[in-house]
Structure formats: C-alpha cells, structure tokens
Amino acid sequence: MTSNEPTAGRQGFGIDVGGSGVKGAVVDLDTGQIIGERFRLDTPQPATPEAVTTTVAEVVRHFGWTGPLGVTYPGVVVDGVVQTAANVDSSWIGTRVAELMSTALDGQQVTVLNDADAAGLAEQRYGAGRNRDGVVVLLTFGTGIGSAVIHNGMLLPNTEFGHIEVEGKEAEHRAAASVRERKGWGYRKWTKQVT
Question: How many CB atoms are closer than 10 A to CB 2?
C-alpha cells in the first residue's frame, strides 16, 4: 500500500521501535484505527541506530509506503535527538534519529517522538482522554514502562515514569510486561507489582 492510494480517510504511517520488536502499520488519521494488519520484525541485537534503521526501512518497504511517517522511540527525544537508551543500545544517545532514518528511506519525511508520548497524544485525540480537561496520564507496559502526561491538552514530554526508583529498583525492572512474562506471573500477581 502506498500513501497515494485512494481511501476513505486521511492516512499516515507509524513505526514503533521497541526493545524487542519494530512494528509498523498504516493508520486512519481521522479515526486513529489501524488500516489492515500491522507488520513486526524483531529488534536487532545489538539494537544500534544503524541496525534498527535498517529494520525500520524493511518494515516501511513491506508496505510500499512512500509518504511521511512517524517513528516512536523508547526513550527521551528532544528536537529529534535521542537523549536516553535504556532498552536499546547506548550508541543511540546523541543520534539525530529523524535524519538517520530519512536518509535510509531515500528522503522520506520522518518525525520522531517518545513512544509513550505518542500513545498519550493518540489517547487524547481518539480515546479516553478526548475532551478531558486537567491531567491525563497514560502508562505503557512492554519491554519497559513508558508514560505520558497531558495537562489541559498540552503534552509534558519525556516523563519516563518507568525509571522512577521504587524500593531501590527502577519501576520498569519490577513491573514491565517483560518482567511478568520472564517470571511467568499471572495478571493478578503482576497487578500487585504495578500498583
């Protein structure tokens, strides 16, 4: 599918770079719904900028997407520059990720945002946070724990609640979905760790 095929709604393309997988899908920008199936490849190990960018390009090419795309990254991103790399290779720090990926994708426009911030903005626009005043908080549970905080419609970027220490250990090392899976916990036991 390409960005110039006729459809019922405006389309965008999103890539989520995670600690264990790189996922991509075409999204209806009017409804927030995924169009068709998402496509996933394992995050390469080591998860260096170059290796992950190659994987991102494979996902984009799988769909034949030629338009602009959004990429979410599992860490702090300020003005397109990666500041942290908790669940990917530390060589990401200082990487101008949008420029790197745009070059690998023959000049396609790439916008990069913290993964949980993107989820929070989507929840505000399409989900439970829609038309809400005050504070909206969203937590994501995967390889790590991500967070988004929106106050009166404005994103407070890069909050990274998963890195708050709880009893001497980062919260995501106690309660991320990856911890639940690794320890074989059921949801009841996992919920106690989360709360």
Answer: 12
pLDDT in tens, 9-49: 899 999 999 989 999 999 999 999 999 999 999 999 999 99
CA–CA dist 86, 58 (Å, integer): 24
Backbone angles phi, psi at 61, to 5 degrees: -70, -30
Residues 6+ apart with CB under 8 A from 130: 124
- CB-count exposure of residue 74 (10 Å: 0-12, 13-18, 19+): buried
Considering the domain delimited by 128-194, tell me its CATH architecture.
2-Layer Sandwich (3.30)
Q: Find the length of the chain.
A: 195
pLDDT in tens, 175-192: 999 999 999 999 999 999
Q: Map residue 42 onto helix, strand or coil.
A: strand
Q: Is 143 exposed, middle or buried (0-12, 13-18, 19+ CB in 10 A)?
A: buried
CA distances from 184 to 42, 170, 179, 187 (A): 21, 20, 8, 10
- Classified as helix, coil or strand, 146 is strand
pTM of the entire structure? Answer: 0.89
Under CATH, which number does the domain 11-116 receive? 3.30.420.40
